[in-house]
Design goal:
- This protein is an alpha+beta fold.
- It folds into two domains: about 25-195, no CATH class; about 205-345, no CATH class.
- Helix content is about 40%, strand content about 25%.
- A ten-stranded antiparallel sheet has the order 6-7-3-2-1-8-9-10-12-11.
- Strand 4 and strand 5 form a beta hairpin.
- Helix 3 (about 50-60) packs parallel to helix 12 and helix 11 (about 295-305) packs across helix 12 (about 325-340).
- The longest helix is centred in the C-terminal third of the chain and has 21 residues, at about 270-290.
- The protein is globular, with a radius of gyration of 23 Å.
Length: about 350
């Protein structure tokens, strides 16, 4: 009995030592600063293995002004630019710190100056460090600078970009502030993201794609006030004014693709009231959008597939479509966009510039 006790103590001590040695091994979420306002996650390997999703993406990309022809194009372009092969990446996690509303307005040509956005993207999986460094050198056309930040090597192919191999299976690429903020968190010098925002992100579970945005106080209410005008659609601000976070997910459920808008409210009662409002809004679109949707088989199926539910304080608006129906819906949207002046004109047209800075 004494031998068993000694053996058990030895095993326990070994485990504690291993845990202590491996204490620096943290995932992407555990490396994100507490003041992040946008979180996102993509499962590249799973997505690239799905032929139906590749066909849908090719349809969606067909009329974009960027020359994107499908997921293979994205894989090749990113590998050429960064040395990262998405086929070997299990998960990409992104984080932004800053005003998401102001950044969005600036990015889409809205008024006002763009705020300084701290950003970092984590790649978890297998990657070739030498290949990534060579891509940095080729892209910048000069020597890649290396500096030590709190004991972590940080590579800089240009003034604005930072790259850090945080673990053998975790790579961080972002601007200088973003990558250094992640290192601060990993070293225990700054708090990691926690609380309701990150919990709402985790509650989106494990889809192929998910994004969650922390909504600044009164931001949606002010946007609705400024955007409804005198048109036929008057959105009740009460549907949105108490929103904590807004999320989006894309997943495969059997042979169908599910796209969900997830809205987090303060309480379950708020979510139930919002569900009634969203149901009314959906019926309005079905009733008054009939003429515009005539002959649009895919769009009609999309509207018919909408399911509005709530789980606790989270409201979910979900479309369930087969890949074929989703392709039809995308083509219907493109047709409607063309009739309104063309998607290229709406997005500014033009092709991708011939030379881009390193990084996503």
């Amino acid at each position: 009995m004494r031998r068993i006790t000694v053996l058990a103590c030895a095993v326990l001590a070994t485990l504690l030592v291993l845990a202590a040695c491996g204490g620096d091994r943290k995932g992407a979420l555990a490396s994100i600063p507490a003041n992040a306002t946008i979180l996102g996650s993509v499962q590249p390997k799973r997505t690239l293995q799905d032929k139906q999703l590749q066909d849908v993406f090719a349809t969606a990309a067909k009329d974009t002004p960027f020359g994107v022809t499908g997921l293979d194009f994205v894989v090749t372009a990113l590998e050429k630019q960064t040395g990262v092969d998405l086929r070997q990446i299990d998960e990409i996690t992104l984080a932004f710190v800053g005003d998401p509303v102001g950044a969005g307005m600036a990015a889409t040509g809205g008024s006002g100056m763009a705020p300084e956005i701290t950003r970092v993207v984590f790649f978890k999986g297998s990657f070739d460090q030498a290949k990534i460094i060579e891509s940095m050198k080729r892209g910048s056309g000069r020597t890649v600078n290396t500096m030590s930040y709190k004991g972590q090597d940080v590579l800089s192919p240009d003034e604005s970009t930072a790259v850090a191999f945080l673990q053998e299976d975790l790579l961080a690429i972002g601007n200088q502030a973003g990558v250094k903020a992640a290192i601060d968190v990993r070293k225990g010098d700054a708090p990691a993201i926690s609380g309701r925002f990150v919990n709402s992100f985790k509650n989106l579970r494990d889809p192929l794609v998910k994004v969650s945005v922390a909504v600044p106080k009164d931001a949606i209410r002010n946007a609705i006030k400024g955007g409804t005008g005198n048109g036929p659609i008057q959105i009740d601000p009460q549907l949105f004014e108490q929103v904590n976070t807004i999320g989006f997910t894309l997943s495969k459920q059997g042979q169908k693709i599910a796209m969900t808008l997830a809205v987090d409210y303060p309480t379950a009662d708020d979510a139930r009231r919002a569900r009634e409002g969203f149901n009314g809004l959906l019926q309005f679109f079905k009733a008054f959008g009939g003429k515009a949707l005539e002959g649009q088989k895919g769009l009609n199926k999309a509207f018919d597939s909408v399911r509005i539910t709530n789980l606790g304080s989270q409201l979910n608006v979900t479309l369930f479509l087969t890949p074929a129906d989703l392709k039809d819906a995308i083509e219907g949207i493109n047709t409607l966009a063309s009739s309104l002046g063309g998607l290229g004109g709406m997005m500014g047209g033009g092709n991708l510039p011939g030379k881009r800075p390193f990084g996503p």
